[in-house]
Design brief:
Distance between the termini: 40 Å
Helix content: under 10%
Number of strands: 11
Order of helices and strands: EEEEEEEEEEE
Shape: elongated
Radius of gyration: 14 Å
Largest sheet: 7 strands, mixed
């Protein structure tokens, strides 16, 4: 089985910072990409940031310049450094990984973590 476990969420004041971590474990041959998504109350899930195995990154316009995604491929871990947090960043942040399970099959699929709550409020 593959499991993604997020950590680092919590309550922070506007302008503060948090760092989220997500570690993938289980039977993994390779991870093509990992990313962070968020769902705020009453809104659809949206992409926050992604990073490929090769290190290419992509950010939502709303977080550019404030958030930084990084990864440690050896640890199958992705991080999201969130600075200058705003109340509108409040959401459940979920980790996603596109994973190839075995060397036998090239089939890859997406896995999701359980989510971690980020609340930005004074």
């Amino acid at each position: 089985q593959v499991q993604l476990v997020e950590s680092g969420g919590g309550l922070v004041q506007p302008g503060g910072s948090l760092r989220l971590s997500c570690a993938a474990s289980g039977r993994i041959f390779s991870i093509n990409a990992m990313g962070w998504y968020r769902r705020a109350p009453g809104k659809q899930r949206e992409l926050v940031a992604t990073i490929t195995n090769g290190g290419s990154t992509n950010y939502a316009d709303s977080v550019k310049g404030r958030f930084t995604i990084s990864s440690d491929n050896a640890k199958n871990t992705v991080y999201l450094q969130m600075n200058s947090l705003k109340p509108e960043d409040t959401a459940v942040y979920s980790c996603n990984a596109n994973i190839r399970r075995t060397a036998i099959s090239s089939y890859s699929t997406d896995y999701w973590g359980q989510g971690t709550q980020v609340t930005v409020s004074s």
